[in-house]
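Troubleshooting entry. Yesterday's outputs looked truncated, so today I'm pasting the complete records for two proteins to confirm everything comes through intact. If either block looks cut off, that's the bug. Protein one:
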Amino acid sequence: MFKDINIQLFAAGDVVNYAGDGVGANAGTYDTNLNQPVHQGDLAPEIKEFYSKVLLELAGPNLVHDQFGQKRPIPRGNGRTVEWRKFSKLPKALVPLTEGVTPAGNKLNVTAVTGTVEQYGDYVESTDLLDLIAIDNVKSETAKLLADQAGLTMDTVVRNELVGGTNVFYATKVSGGTETEVTSRTDLTADCRLRVKDIFKVAAEMKAVNAPKINGSYVAIIHPYVSHDIMMEAGEAWIGLQKYTNNVSKVYEGEIGMLAGIRFVETTEAKIYGPAVINNGLSRLTVASNVSSSTSVVVNETLEAATYTTPIPVYVNGVANTITAVAVDSTTGAATLTLGTAVTASAGAVICGQGAGKDGSAVFCTLFLGENAYGVTDLEGAGLEYIAKQRGYGNDPLNQRSSQGWKGTKGAKRLLEEYMIRYESGSAFSDEAESN
């Protein structure tokens, strides 16, 4: 799908490629009328257009959260605000008509919902030496990486808006055949799984508020770890994608199957709330030896010495606490935590950052969506742009550096909270997952 391109194939008029070392790698083009090279700030327009299309095509598969939103174009000349329209339902017309009398009628109630768009972007520089000695086509590979980055960035912007919704359910804890209701994220553990009956319950909740379906079905965005859990339980009740593709007008990015009339799309970018980092990149620690009513706790992990002006919030054995300092023995390397409150704990007890389950379990968000639940800005037009600079531009007196990058504008807004449900659960993989 993605191949090296010869600039000569796209050049217009008398301007042609003059060095031939790959797209965008040259210092410029050659003007046959003037018999001399011409340096340009960008690639030839045709090549830039080609790479812009490639950027959109390769970014697309990452836009799982984006694909079900009500699309609106990026506003031009109207600042950073984009508007979506929300139409209220008409009440039932239960008053019988009188013969020959025109009723008062009704009016549409349209509410404008506005959101702010932000601009995002990144670029990569490459040198003339890298272009010269690299085995791979650096420009092409860089374009692929940038497209992947752009798609994930834009999708995450949308995802972060969606997971802020107020309509949330928590998975029930099931242990030893006993079910315990969970009412907060902190009480979720690996034993709190999304189950088949939960999905049927969500479908009923969506129907109860008359949430419109998307192409005939509700949609769920789910993490692979959670979809694994649900498919293992569902067995033959799970309808694989290959069984119904002939009956749908469109297969969604990441779609894997159907259950309870809900089509599931899978992405590793489904939101995970993991315990916050404590020290040295670690979010989970274990107590090295028994502690009795002490604020000093030795842990098994290698940490960096630190004193915290703002204490680090943690859970110690499931109880909220703080860390005010970390001391490291210069001989053994053993790390000792200073806690804000004295604790009694056994060797192996878990100390974790706050933000997810209080036992250190990661929490997974599955989003169930009806039509028009949220709005997004479109990537076409000003939404996503490929930018290439050739050697010799900017502060580059020796023509040593070129760059490729992308710039995009994105906005998302929840429109109808009742048309979306966020279902938070643990998973068989809760102990190893991290925040994303």
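Protein two, checking that the full record survives here as well:
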Amino acid sequence: MKVTVRPSVVKGTVRAIPSKSFAHRQLICAALAERETKICCRVISEDISATVRCLSALGASIDFNDGVISVTPITSPKRGAVLDCGESGSTYRFLSPVAAVLGAEPTFILRGRLAERPMAPLWEALERGGISIEGKGSESVSFSGRLTAGEFEIPGDVSSQFISGLLMALPLLEKDSRIKTSGPVESGGYIDMTLDVLKTFSMKTQVKEGSIEISGTDRFISPGSIATEGDWSNSAFWLCGAAACGGSLSCEDLNINSCQGDRAITRVLMEMGAEVICEENSVRVNAGTLKPVRIDASNIPDLVPPIALMACAAGGETEIFNAGRLRLKESDRLYTVVDTLRRLGAEIFEEASSLRIIGGRPLAGGEVNSHGDHRIAMMASLASVISLDDIVINGAESVSKSYPGFFEDLAALGGIVRKEQ
């Protein structure tokens, strides 16, 4: 799909889309519980659909009706299930240990760049626990065997999703287990999110320095009904876009006490000079004079695209560092952020694990490709707020991976959008 976005100002009020990071975890825990769980989640993205599809293949019954996902748990895991993960890294990394514990002996089908994304540390941990894996690095990966309890060592600086997947899987074993992390843990907020959801399902864990202990005697207990809180990473595009163009915008359904690490966007906005007003369930950004800063992205990699866009409007040089993990996303996101913004007229430079943006002047506009990456498509669209001419995005359908209604919300906030199939 090709989308053209004309220069405009975003302002008004938007409701945050439900967090797909929370929804993944809630769905998996609900599928492992003892009775039905209802999850209030008004929008289902492609990534969430992938987790629903895979849990259904494992034996759960899942229905979505009028903004509520009803999950009837797995009672007898289906052996030999084919789990189509689409392009969802969370689905693949979370369900690998879950399926291994269930003894489902599945085949994972991987699409897009998913087969290229790092898995070796998790594979090694699962193999030490008794799982045989075939097809590593291909688009079809098969497991055999059943995971046994024990100690699982995972490096902390590759993907927190490995740890989260094990946290959701290991309570199903009858004996205690331990996850030992080596080195610094990046994106620790996502592990906190997993622990938070586990607590909702009555699971207890003991977090110690460098390790997490999981009891084999606890069981997932459904809370009956829960809600998926609003997503900070996608909401950051609206907040940064408004700050960049001098608009005034409120984003509702955001928990300011959330364990989502990406709520750090409020701190970044304030550091860069925007006026930010946080209330219990909303955040408002008012115009301010933006200034350049140095930003450590090690714990907020998903915020780099909207921050890079905002930096284009800040007079001076902004540096975003410790961002090397972005090369392993749906695209090489360090390269694609630079390629996209440079094509639109930005002065931006890519280094091994960092970006430098020299901002303070309008973008020219132009035509770009999403590179199949939802966050690149959203960044390019919001670049229209500081552009002199139209911005044309090819492959704009990629936004559906996390935000199916993105362009409708953009139009409601004042964006001028034209879609072409």
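Both blocks look complete. Sanity check on protein two: The mean pLDDT is 96.
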